[in-house]
Amino acid sequence: MTTSDPARDSDASGQAELIDVLVQATFMTVAVLSGVAADNDLSLTQLRVLAILRDRRVRMSALAAYLGLDRSTMSGLVERAEKRGLLARAPDPSDGRAVEVFLTGSGAELAGALYIRIEQSLSPATGRLAPAERRRLAALLRQMAGPEG
Amino acid sequence: MTTSDPARDSDASGQAELIDVLVQATFMTVAVLSGVAADNDLSLTQLRVLAILRDRRVRMSALAAYLGLDRSTMSGLVERAEKRGLLARAPDPSDGRAVEVFLTGSGAELAGALYIRIEQSLSPATGRLAPAERRRLAALLRQMAGPEG
DNA sequence: TATTGTTATACTCTATAACTATA
DNA sequence: TATAGTTATAGAGTATAACAATA
After folding, report:
1. B19, B20, B23, B25 alpha-carbon torsion, rounded to 10°
2. A146 CB contacts (<8 Å, ≥6 apart)?
3. I need a surface site. Which of A1, A121, B6, B132 has the fewest CB within 10 A?
4. Cβ within 8 Å, pair A136-B140
5. How many Cβ atoms from other residues are within 10 Å of residue B37's Cβ?
6. Exposed, middle or buried, B33 (CB in 10 Å: 0-12/13-18/19+)?
7. What's the CA B73/C1' C16 distance, rounded, in angstroms?
8. Higher-confidence residue: A7 or A48?
9. In which residue ranges of chain B is pLDDT below 70?
10. Distance from residue B146 (CA) to nucleotide D5 (C1'), in Å?
11. Of all helices (H) and strands (E), which one includes residue A27?
12. What pLDDT score was predicted for residue A14?
């Protein structure tokens, strides 16, 4: 989304300029995350599932809602990951319709390793900032994308 | 990639904390972009193709390299977009092997509309920042993800 | 009646392998 | 020989529609 629109030159509010570089940083990050996932024969979505389940046990429907996917899509994703021994399903005792998903030992191990690889793979980017700048950037990103949104 | 790792509490360098919120902001942005794309019956990759071609005419191989895709994948993406009348292919006069891709009038019109929708759809997030904060965030993101990386 | 999850189906996205044409 | 692009193939990701079981 890089443009050379002349209207951008007098962008006093910084909206358009921020959007350009935000989109650029987004695809840089997606590329890094996808690379780490691919190195482990995972899709980006599978990586996200492992990350979500790292410290939680959740219902199929909650997983689908959080990822913005249809429940039928979740069934396929979970089935393939289950076949690989990364996670498992169990009926929810409190609701006969619901199914809970959780990591196996092997899945938890992989999730931990993935997190370390992500930190390493992003460090060339984050390392371009001084510690104080990193904290400032984190604060601004949290304000922009934070809990409220 | 949100965690409650106690090691994070004493993260004086801000590395891990930045990574968490960067990944969160990344998926927020991807969700917004994917939503805009889906509203126009496009995939996120197709939207990126239109954005790249907005002010350029590029070779198939350059497009594939920029997006990190195989050339055969580009052939399919471009063929489907061409079938919809959004872009076209033409042989490169300077190299008999090469093919250049460029937007049609209809494709350029859509690309412009998409950009406006993206600005609108991201504004709830960017609007949480004051103009000076937006400029500061843009500068930090540029430094982190900028031209060098 | 509404919700949860699965299955069947169809299409897009993606990479690998094999191929043609050009450099 | 190497590069540019396409085609064939196969598998993963995705949504829609229809369904069964439970609430």
Report:
1. -110
2. B21, B128
3. B6
4. yes
5. 20
6. buried
7. 11
8. A48
9. 1-10, 12, 147-149
10. 31
11. helix A15-39
12. 83
What pLDDT is attached to residue A85?
Answer: 98
* Position A58, amino acid: V
CB-based contacts of A45: which residues, under 8 Å, 6+ apart?
A67, A69, A77
Q: Which nucleotide is nearest to B48 (CA to C1')?
A: C13
Could you give the angle at the alpha carbon of A22 between the alpha carbons of B62 and A42, nearest 5°?
Answer: 65
pTM value is: 0.93
pLDDT at A146 over 60: yes
Q: How high is the pLDDT of residue B13?
A: 82
For residues B8 and A27, give the distance between their C-alpha atoms in angstroms, rounded to a whole number: 26
Give the mean pLDDT of A15-32.
96
Chain centroid to Cα A55, Å, comes to: 14
Q: What SS3 class is residue B149?
A: coil
Number of Cα atoms under 13 Å in the Cβ half of residue A134 = 20
Q: Smallest Cβ distance to A21: which of B54, B131, B138? A: B138
Give which of A114, A128, A134, A135 to mutate to test B binding, by max B Cβ within 10 Å: A134
* Alpha-carbon span A127 to A105, nearest angstrom: 32
